[in-house]
C-alpha cells in the first residue's frame, strides 16, 4: 500500500478546497484528488507534488476547458477551473514513487478563451 496525501489547507481565507485528506492505494492502481475554489476571476488550478527530500514538482494545470498534464508523469487532469467547478487530478500506475503530498492552488490567468 502506498500513501498519497493531498494537502489539507487552503488559501485566500479557505477559498481553495481539496479532497480527500488522505488515501492509501495498492501498486498499479490510480488515485483521484479533487480541487475547487470560490475566488472571483480565478480560472486556473495548478497541481503540485512534494516528495520527501525532493523539490516540489509541477504536475500540470486545469483551465476553464480542460486539463494539461506535464508529459511522462503518469497523471491526468480533468474538469474546469471556473469558480465552484471541480477539477480532478488522477495519479495513475501508482508505485513507491507516487507516495507524496499532492496539492492544488488557484490562480488568476489573464488570457481570454
Automatic annotation (TrEMBL):
What residue stretches are annotated with the Immunoglobulin V-set domain?
Answer: 18-110
What top-level branch of life does the organism fall under?
Answer: Eukaryota
Keyword annotations from UniProtKB, A to Z: Immunity, Signal
SUPFAM superfamilies, per the entry: Immunoglobulin
Please name the Gene3D superfamilies in this protein's record: Immunoglobulins
Protein name listed in UniProt: Immunoglobulin V-set domain-containing protein
Amino acid at each position: 500500500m502506498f500513501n498519497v496525501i493531498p494537502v489539507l489547507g487552503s488559501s485566500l481565507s479557505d477559498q481553495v478546497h481539496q479532497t480527500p485528506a488522505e488515501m492509501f492505494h495498492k501498486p498499479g492502481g490510480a488515485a483521484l484528488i479533487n480541487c475547487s475554489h470560490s475566488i472571483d476571476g480565478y480560472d486556473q488550478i495548478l497541481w503540485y507534488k512534494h516528495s520527501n527530500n525532493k523539490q516540489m514538482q509541477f504536475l500540470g494545470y486545469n483551465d476553464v476547458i480542460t486539463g494539461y498534464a506535464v508529459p511522462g508523469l503518469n497523471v491526468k487532469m480533468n474538469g474546469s477551473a471556473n469558480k465552484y467547478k471541480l477539477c480532478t487530478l488522477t495519479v495513475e500506475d501508482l508505485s513507491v514513487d507516487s507516495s507524496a503530498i499532492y496539492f492544488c492552488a488557484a490562480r488568476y490567468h489573464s488570457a481570454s478563451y
